[in-house]
Amino acid sequence: MAKNTLFDGFRAAIADHTRPFIIDGDAVTTYGDMLEQSAQYANALVELGVKPGDRVTVQAAKTVEALIFYLAVIRAGGVYQPLNTAYTMTEVAYFLENAEPTVVITDVSAIDAMQALAAKSGDARVKTLERQHPQSLTDRAIAHRSEFDNVVRNDADLAAILYTSGTTGRSKGAMLTHANLLSNAAALCDIWHFSADDILIHALPIFHTHGLFVATNVVLLSGAALRFFPAYNPDTVLDAMPVSTVLMGVPTFYTRLLASERLNREQVANMRLFISGSAPLLAETHKQFSERTGMAILERYGMTETNMNASNPYEGARKPGTVGFPLPGTRIRVCDPDSGLPLDKGAVGMVEVSGPNVFGGYWRMPEKTREEFRADGFFITGDLGMIDDEGYLVIVGRGKDLIITGGLNVYPKEIESEIDDLDGVLESAVVGVPHADFGEGIVAVVVQSPGSNLNSDAVHGVLAARLAKFKLPKAYYFVDALPRNTMGKVQKNELRNIYADQFNTSGESDTSAPGARG
Length: 518
Ligand code: AMP
Fold this sequence. Notes:
This protein has 15 helices and 26 strands. The N and C termini lie far apart (66 Å). The protein binds adenosine monophosphate. Residues 164-165, 209, 277-280, 299, 301-304, 323, 381, 383, 395, 398, 487 line the site of adenosine monophosphate (AMP).
């Protein structure tokens, strides 16, 4: 039988067409419905001229239709290309030029602007998934047959292009193959013990690898169900727990759950697993969650380019502050960033990965692709990390966030961990900004716990006793919250911009004292 690697994998996991795939309040989309609706959309895509390998760009609200539509693109042999819903039309223009899609899906509210943009950068057909609109693809799809012969797509064919967030330049399109996605979903189903009995609380966006691939593909490949939420709200997630089994979230999901008095052992009694990823989970959050619920959050590590790489164990210790062990089939090593030579346990260096999960390269950027792979095929993640004495991987931070002050390397995480340990501190972020004498000077941005009243001298006093002098921040700021993106990642670029002129770069700054500012 002709094969479509990813969709065949999902299809093989469907034991019973009447079982729920998506539960959205009282509305249930069964696996049978999913097969029919995705077939109708796939027929509509072919009618629009989508051919194998054509890109289909989607910038649309998180809806049940949008999830089904992702599967239709795969079945039609297209390359799914989701975009963050927060991108402005100026930003979208770049993606359309770069990806040259055949079809662009947008919401009705943006359809005119998208149409104008598409007309400038090619001849993409602009459609919406919303009903009762002249350009509604859903209205069109329901007139189509609910059967579809999946377009043949092999392991190495592209299934999706996901653009990286591009904080260090232009966004790059990570080319993900059918085999990348299927192998990773299979590994995760296995290590996290997913089965058809699971009901996953799905409150993540679906334009990012976490909500789209980790959450959705794992559910599909185990024939489980997902409980659909258009956005995250701690109260609705708490309501869902007694009738669900797994939550996948970013760390802010967990800090916001902890802020609710409703989070307790009774509320989580039906849940078997809480997973966190996409940004570092504070060890303190892990501890508080265990104390309140009796359950240890399972932290895992991955990225757009590689899918998931490492996970704490299902059985065995889930070690706070670590991301666990390599997934089955994935190899992880920590290397000297310059020489590329592997480092010993305990040494901090560049995290490099290889395996069936790792992408093939950046779309139309062969140079960038070459730069980020070693000759032996390992991908240079850009994350700094180390393997601890028990073999757990610890992510220390992004390489570009490394601070070089007076010629010495300082890992922000080391300072952040010390600050976070202080009574009265909720969290912190440490960045390097230009400094006339030192190259970079260290700035600490601190969020206090409600009711506490710290000042920079108090924080500096404690750090001075614990850290070498060159690691000490030269200025402290107290803020209400750290800037974060939708995936819960602290936006260090933004902090570097805010505090860029912090130290007098003409050379007149006082370089010894902590600035009692903010
Ligand atoms: P993205 O491509 O948007 O998924 O971002 C991937 C990046 O998020 C990684 O390269 C890491 O820097 C970070 N990341 C993901 N999971 C974790 C984690 N559990 N701990 C620390 N950083 C993480």
